[in-house]
From TrEMBL:
Enzyme Commission code: 3.5.1.23
Chain residues that bind Zn(2+): 146, 255, 492, 531
Protein name according to UniProt: Neutral ceramidase
Main EC class the enzyme belongs to: hydrolase
Signal peptide positions on this chain: none
Family under the similarity heading: Belongs to the neutral ceramidase family.
Cofactor comment: Binds 1 zinc ion per subunit.
Gene Ontology CC terms: extracellular region; membrane
GO BP field: ceramide catabolic process; long-chain fatty acid biosynthetic process; sphingosine biosynthetic process
Keyword Zinc in record: yes
Length: 800
């Protein structure tokens, strides 16, 4: 004890002990802190390793292509030609791969109107040349955003050539190269990552543009939903194992038609603007199209969904035209147009795009439900013109050959059509039906009955000149990423059609031991087949129903097919559980289809339609071996074929082009009585002059013999036929032929001469030349589909 006056002190030993105690306490605290820090780090690392279930890669590449003097795709308006650029177009690719093996899924959303079969095949061809069998048609999904302000001209079917004025090679090449490059960037950027999903409701961004069709669905079904549009947005968030943000995919049903059909500037419309806003938000300081974060706003079941939220009004009077036929008292259907939320189409695009962006941003930030599970995919080729659908135990129905109804020509409130066509037409118009019958042929009774109550305007499934007008062979596909199933649909499903499809596929997964699947519809994938309505909506025959090309049971067929794919994925045994496929139209088979068309062109004068089927080149149509273009030429010009040429070639001259490279050209020019096979170096003027001699000489000789003033032997009052140089622009010739047939007399003969000589040769000179590096087969058409050199060889594609 220290006294009151004494000084309190510790002995040296006590001081040493106190210091030691303090040091021990401090050391203990430090050790405890280090222990817990190390434990937290280990636990965190263990969590990351466990959570990083996938390899994830994202990529973006420009796919804009030409922006001036190019037809725009979407509104089918031949006057809507590109005149500049408002925003660039991009392909956004996302790859998710398994950590343990090579299983992977690729999803691409491109700022284009839709994906054509030709575009998809060329993309897959380039991917296979780069990566072998890593990326295939079963694990690659290509989806178009459906902007109506992008370049056209990338299809191989005749219907789409009409408004795009044939094939636009620069547009197609830009799309193919952009998509492939975006996938390549995603492939090279793959890293361990995690996926999260979230969903929510988007308000004030859409209306149903065919509400009268929607009301035909059963009341009990409609009562289950609060709206006549799908307001739900699904967001897939992607991040690497360190939490760094990589990208997102948003699926939401809205038509990118805020920019109307008076627009001439190439742009990505409202969903493209949403992508721009999101990417600028995440890629601070980067220019548009640059930065590592990739945001795709993909299409879904948008068939009857419009972003023009103020609804339809008569542009001449200002009154509402929200009626079953969308017509105005003055001006009819042509005056009925929907208005967006803005004062003009540019402001409307900004408003809708911003609405979508803000909701996606909210869902993205709150996404916490992790996607886990194995990767799988299923793909099937189907002949959609002949699918048997079991409605119940006692009733089976079938799909139809493709056909478009009268209301197709009426357009929609987002983009009106032409002439006096109206929506909701369940009866044909005798005037237009007569013109159709004269120019394109009358639909068969079988097709008419199959499509009832649709009055057929174009029986495209029965129209094969100069090539098929619509696809018969269609592919359906599902890609499953753990608990997320992406349904790649080849067209535009309406609101209720999409709901039924999602419900059916989810039920199929549930019934086969895979409950809780998140089902999303990715629209406009792989091949375009227009619209898919419900059976009830089909009866009303507004634009969407008239554009449901495989008939009233199209939706039921797709539901049956997608259920089969879902069952295959759920049961893992895949292909054995799927219906039999119709066959895979690889480029080699498209090639033989084209060659088959050539046979049809030349076979009509023969006594038997199979005359040419026994020739040397036709033995290879199984794709077991490929023929080069020159081999096809020499086989076609073999003595065996020449023996089959009849003494009088009754249907006029035909030209078949087999090969052209720089100045070397190999072609067959058949005229009455003989076929000219030529292979050598010529220039354009020489070829033109030679064909002119053949056409005019043979035509006038025949006219002189028959006593007719028309070189092709068409009588002044007779029905016109497609004869001289039938590859020329089809509708122009058909129009001139019909006019000539009606004029008669001297005027008809003069017009006939112009059609048979100057017009055909001008079209040949202007539209066919210059030819691409490799023509696969023949070219009796203007700007026809062509493949790259190695794509002309069917043997280049391995058979699976």
């Amino acid at each position: 004890m220290c006294g009151k006056r004494s000084r309190c002190s510790f002995s040296r030993l006590e001081v040493i002990l106190i210091v030691c105690l303090v040091l021990m306490i401090a050391l203990t605290v430090v050790l405890l802190v280090l222990h817990f820090l190390t434990k937290d780090t280990d636990d965190s690392n263990n969590d990351v390793v466990e959570a990083a279930r996938y390899l994830v890669g994202v990529g973006r590449a420009d796919c804009t292509g030409p922006v001036a003097q190019v037809p725009l795709m979407g509104y089918a308006n031949p006057d809507q030609v590109g005149g500049g650029l408002l925003s660039r177009l991009y392909s956004r690719a996302f790859i998710v791969a398994d950590l343990e093996d090579s299983k992977r899924v690729v999803f691409v959303s491109a700022d284009i109107g839709m994906v054509s079969q030709r575009l998809r095949l060329e993309v897959l061809k380039q991917l296979q040349s780069k990566y072998g069998e890593l990326y295939r048609q079963d694990n690659v999904i290509l989806s178009g955003t459906h902007t109506h302000s992008g370049p056209g001209g990338y299809f191989q079917y005749t219907l789409f050539w009409i408004t795009s004025k044939g094939l636009v090679r620069p547009a197609l090449s830009s799309m193919v190269n952009g998509i492939v490059k975006s996938i390549e960037i995603a492939h090279n950027s793959m890293r361990k990552g995690r996926l999260f999903i979230n969903r929510g409701t988007v308000e004030n961004s859409q209306i149903n543009r065919s509400p009268f069709s929607y009301l035909k669905n059963p009341a009990s079904e409609r009562s289950r939903y609060s709206s006549n549009t799908d307001k739900e947005m699904v967001v897939l968030k992607m991040a690497d194992e360190d939490g760094h943000e990589l990208g997102l995919i948003s699926w939401f049903a809205v038509h990118p038609v805020s920019m109307n059909n008076s627009n001439h500037l190439v742009n990505s419309d409202n969903v493209g603007y949403a992508s721009y806003l999101f990417e600028q938000e995440k890629n601070k300081g980067a220019l548009p199209g640059e930065g590592s974060f990739v945001a795709a706003f993909a299409s879904s079941n948008l068939g009857d969904v419009s972003p023009n939220t103020r609804g339809p009004f008569c542009v001449n009077t200002g009154e509402s035209c929200d009626n079953p036929q969308s017509i105005c008292p003055i001006g009819g259907a042509a005056m009925c147009m929907a208005k967006g939320p803005g004062s003009d189409m540019f402001e409307s695009t900004r408003i809708i795009g911003q609405n979508i962006f803000l909701k996606a941003k909210e869902l993205y930030e709150k996404a916490s439900q992790e996607v886990t599970g194995p990767l799988s995919s299923a793909h099937q080729w189907v002949n959609m013109s002949n699918v048997s659908v079991e409605l119940n135990a006692t009733h089976t129905v079938k799909t139809c050959k493709p056909a478009l109804g009268h209301s197709f020509a009426a357009g929609t409130i987002d983009g009106v059509g032409a002439f006096n066509f109206t929506q909701g037409s369940v009866e044909g118009d005798p005037f237009w039906d007569q013109i159709r019958d004269q120019l394109l042929g009358e639909p068969s009774n079988e097709t008419k009955a199959c499509h009832k109550p649709k009055p057929i305007l174009f029986s495209t499934g029965e129209m094969t000149w100069p090539h098929p007008w619509h696809p018969d062979i269609v592919d359906v596909q599902i890609a499953a990423i753990g608990s997320l199933a992406i349904l790649a649909v080849p067209g535009e499903f309406t609101t209720m059609s999409g709901r039924r499809l999602r419900e059916a596929v989810k039920s199929e997964f549930d019934s086969h031991g895979t409950p809780g699947m998140n089902i999303v519809i990715a629209g406009l994938c792989n091949v375009y087949t227009h619209y898919i309505t419900t059976y009830e909506e089909y009866q009303v025959q507004r634009y969407e129903a008239a554009s449901t090309i495989y008939g009233p049971h199209t939706l039921s067929a797709y539901i049956q097919l997608f259920r089969g794919l879902a069952k295959a994925i759920a049961l893992v045994s895949s292909i054995s559980y799927m219906p039999q496929a119709a066959g895979d139209p690889k480029p080699c088979q498209w090639l033989w289809l084209l060659l088959s068309e050539a046979t049809q062109v030349l076979s009509s004068p023969f006594s038997s339609e199979t005359t040419l089927r026994n020739t040397t080149w036709y033995e290879y149509n199984s794709c077991n071996r490929g023929l080069t273009p020159l081999e096809k030429f020499w086989a076609f010009c073999s003595s065996e074929w020449r023996k089959s040429v009849p003494p009088t070639f009754q249907h006029g001259p035909k030209l078949l082009l087999f090969y052209q490279r720089k100045t070397k050209i190999c072609y067959v020019f058949a005229v009455p009585g003989r076929a000219h096979c030529h292979c050598g170096h010529v220039n354009r003027q020489e070829l033109w002059a030679g064909i002119s001699r053949h056409v005019l000489g043979a035509g006038f000789r025949r006219a002189q013999q028959q006593g007719s003033r028309c070189p092709a032997g068409i009588g002044p009052a007779g029905r016109a036929q497609t004869e001289i140089l039938s590859f020329a622009f089809p509708l122009t010739l058909l129009f001139l032929q019909s006019v000539q047939a009606g004029l008669g007399g001297g005027a008809g003969a003069v017009l006939c001469f112009l059609r048979e000589s100057w017009l055909s040769l001008w079209l040949f000179n202007e539209l066919i030349f210059p030819l691409p590096e490799c023509h696969s087969g023949f070219a009796p058409w203007s700007r026809a589909p062509t493949f790259q050199r190695n794509q002309c060889d069917p043997a280049a594609f391995p058979q699976r």
